[in-house]
Amino acid sequence: MMDSVLCWADKNRDQFLAGLKKWLSIPSISAQPDHRGDVAAAAEWLRDEARSIGMNAEVVPTAGHPVVLITTPEGLAPKGAPHILIYGHYDVQPPEPLELWESPPFVPTVRDGILYARGAVDDKGQVHCHLSALTAWKQINGGFPCRISMIIEGEEEVGSPNFMSVVNARKDFFKTAKTLIISDTSIYSRDVPTLTYGLRGLVGTEMVLHGANTDLHSGAYGGTVANSGHALCEMVARLHDPQGRVTVPGFYDDVIPLTEKERQMWKQLPYSDEQFAKDLGVTELFGEVGYTTLERKYGRPTLEINGITCGYQGPGNKTVLPNRASCKITCRLVPGQDAEKIMDRLQEYLRRIKPAGVTMEFTYRTKGSPSCLTPLESPAMEAAGEAMKLAFGKMPVFKREGGSIPVPAWFKESLNIDSVLIGFGLPDDRIHAPNEKFELCQYYAGIKACAALYALLAEKLK
Amino acid sequence: MMDSVLCWADKNRDQFLAGLKKWLSIPSISAQPDHRGDVAAAAEWLRDEARSIGMNAEVVPTAGHPVVLITTPEGLAPKGAPHILIYGHYDVQPPEPLELWESPPFVPTVRDGILYARGAVDDKGQVHCHLSALTAWKQINGGFPCRISMIIEGEEEVGSPNFMSVVNARKDFFKTAKTLIISDTSIYSRDVPTLTYGLRGLVGTEMVLHGANTDLHSGAYGGTVANSGHALCEMVARLHDPQGRVTVPGFYDDVIPLTEKERQMWKQLPYSDEQFAKDLGVTELFGEVGYTTLERKYGRPTLEINGITCGYQGPGNKTVLPNRASCKITCRLVPGQDAEKIMDRLQEYLRRIKPAGVTMEFTYRTKGSPSCLTPLESPAMEAAGEAMKLAFGKMPVFKREGGSIPVPAWFKESLNIDSVLIGFGLPDDRIHAPNEKFELCQYYAGIKACAALYALLAEKLK
After folding, report:
1. Distances (CA, A) of B288 to A220, A222, B247
2. Which residues in B lie closer than 8 A to residue A232 (C-beta atoms)?
3. Cβ contacts of residue B340 below 8 Å, gap of 6+?
4. A414 FRET partner, CA 20 to 30 A, in A280, A298, B30, B349?
């Protein structure tokens, strides 16, 4: 049966592509209030497409943009088939700067086998892989191997502020899901199909130092009172040791160490420090000793200054002794680390190393987003691995990502559901940038991977 | 003779004050192009007043605002009398924020014996002390005890960009001057008349660090390449030791040490660290060990960060790994130090301590302004001391200032003329701020001090 489905999917590529192009032509830019109607239209388009293949589908309003919820009606999945949940988003990043696009961002255009449009790969194109796979199953089989639900939001690009309220309002429904499938990442490289099994978490704060009650004249006061800028630099300089390790006490205490298996897997990825440095325009790389670049990026926690503001920043010199200096700090977290605990330790350490003569405050701390790690040996991950092999011709490599997507952690936290990150994009797809693309061979392989995945999950999760 | 002059000056206070109020009502704001006509009018007012007491006076045009040059005609000074030069400025700072003024800045108003107006003390009021003193001498004596020249510029508040071109064009004339008198400072406190015999110099630069060729995503890249913000903080943290000493090699090599006499003099000034800290709103002071606060401020060189810019500075968090960080640095210099040499050493040191992974550039370095130090034992300084005693009833204290006024150093450099800084303002006169004031008792005492000074200089410099 699966073979017939994959075969039909292959034969009907043009039909799928035509549908995707229609969806991509709707400028569903969640960040721009002028496009509120377009965002709604993109949600309705998806609802109608889902209904056309017999799914239940509704546009669920939120305080912001709506969520599209698609579920499998009684009779379209075998009795007792596992419930699997697919997450994605139909909103897109703003397309600006427009002048850098070779074809207009909302006029989807194929050149040399590559589809160009805003949202082509992030994330309409990848959601559409699932929709196409479902279409093929419905066509050939009259129904689906699992009970499939899709929850596709319209605010991912603006931080998903209302997403979990929709999930939590239907907690009883969602908690029957056995796994969460997300197709919103890329494979490692063109020839290296990949599954992502871990993401780093994130937590941030802003530290502000105050010196005198006003900016002072550096002539009349220089040498007599603490300079907030000096104090800030002294503190920041004490956040890392010369070997690139974070010096906050206890920072690494709860880190689950990388396994030998992971380190070996990543060593086999085609990667070169020289090329990486060249691409970034630096003469040397820098980071925590004892780990390779990929290990540092995928599996080690970091503490980064994201911005510093102090004193006069205009042209030329101004002889001011700044009374205020601030810096934004974020930490990327890895499995084992608790965001709240790390932030407590960081703030405690900063309080301790604060130099004399200045006072300190934290103007905010973000709600931490935990890291996520899906067990490599889980049935869902095995199913995903086999699905990728069927679609891309070889077994995928298992990698983590350095970035943070909050949804997997939220589902883990709220419903104890693990996620499988099965993405089909390429690292150079220019997401969030002009000329975003989705290569058609990736799109078509993605459809096959999705179609295969449903059957494999039905088998492994039963 | 001098007694009669001082007596006449005392009796004609109202006439002087009326003149000053007229001058102060002209909004000669050099920084604001809309006030170009007012600046010119203030120059012409001064020229006309000088002519009315028989002086030669001209408005000398420059590339910016004009300079008023006032000289003593043949016959109005004794043959062979010393030539003394008075420097000042008739331009004023912008008055904003206007809503904080209790009476309008250009409607000079006396309340409780205090004159309020923009420019009241900085510097029209203090220039007017000299003009009034000359008026008194002319009235009683028909002429002046010295050959007096005044050079009063209209761009002091914008950095005096065109001043020295006027001086240099008349070098032969100016170089006959025996001393430069400047009344643009304040006395130490109400009961402590003061002469300023030293100013710190100034030199500055901006250091920019570059990391990768673009800002990077802190998730995708955090932990793999140098963060320009960390690098900058590490460098700045290495510019001082924990005892507040500048660590740039050779920074203190050429410093002329404070003499025991100076340290003793300053110890006798009414001063309290507790009050100073309280006024600034800090719980503790900070600076180079081994020196009192006043010694650090008057007589020790400093290195201060004036501003830092790096990465994201808007509201909330942005998970960027900043590829650019910059900071502005200025050094206050003391006698003995050469601005160019200090800047060379600073830049050399920064090049040496630059961490791996970033490149560095200096976007500019300012033309250094040297410090100045007038010998305490010079005849001009003695004359000024006696003049202050006659006007204020006790011998002045000799202090230095932490700030920098370039004119004395320029005259020293270009014409080898020492300066006497004889000012009559009070430290709380709110120069550059709303409700600038000149207390009338200071104004009248200033007129007497100037009148006495001319006679004393004629005697000591002959």
Report:
1. 15, 11, 11
2. 233, 308
3. B203, B368
4. A298
Look at the alpha carbons of A376, A377, A378, A382 in this order and tell me if their dihedral is positive or negative.
Answer: positive
Backbone angles phi, psi at B326, to 5 degrees: -135, 155
DSSP track, A366-397: PPPB--EE--TTSHHHHHHHHHHHHHHSSPPE
Measured in residues, chain A has a length of: 462
Distance CA B453, CA B459 (A): 10
A53-85 tens-digit pLDDT = 999 999 999 999 999 999 999 999 999 999 999
Provide φ and ψ at B13, rounded to 5°.
-55, -45
Check whether the bond before B123 is cis (ω within 30° of 0): yes
Distance from CA of A404 to the nearest CA of B (A): 7
CB pairs under 8 A between A and B: 271
Taking CB atoms and an 8 Å limit, are A357 and B284 in contact across chains?
Answer: yes
Tens of pLDDT, residue by residue over A45-57, are 999 999 999 999 9
User: 3-state DSSP call for residue A269?
Assistant: coil
Chain-chain contact of A311 with B302 (C-beta, under 8 angstroms): no
| Contact between A362 and A196 (Cβ < 8 Å) | no
Q: What does the DSSP assignment read for B92-141?
A: B-----GGG-SS-TTS-EEETTEEESTTSSSSHHHHHHHHHHHHHHHHHH
* Chain A hits for B312, Cβ within 8 Å: 306-307, 328
Residues comprising chain B, all counted: 462
- What's the Rg (C-alpha) of chain A? 25
The DSSP symbol for B115 reads E
How far off is chain A from B439, nearest CA to CA, in Å?
22
Pick from A246, A215, A245: which is nearest to A229 by CA? A215
* ipTM exceeding cut-off 0.90 for this assembly: no
pLDDT one-digit tens code per residue, A134-169: 999 999 999 999 999 999 999 998 889 999 999 999
Q: Do B307 and A322 touch (CB under 8 A)?
A: yes
Instruction: Collect all residues of chain B within an 8 Å Cβ-Cβ radius of residue A234.
Output: 233, 236-237
Task: Supply the pTM of this predicted model.
Answer: 0.87
Taking the CA of residue B155 and the nearest CA in chain A, the distance in Å comes to: 17
What's B287's DSSP letter? Answer: -
CA distance B71 to chain A (A): 33
Up-side HSE of residue A349: CA atoms within 13 Å toward CB?
18
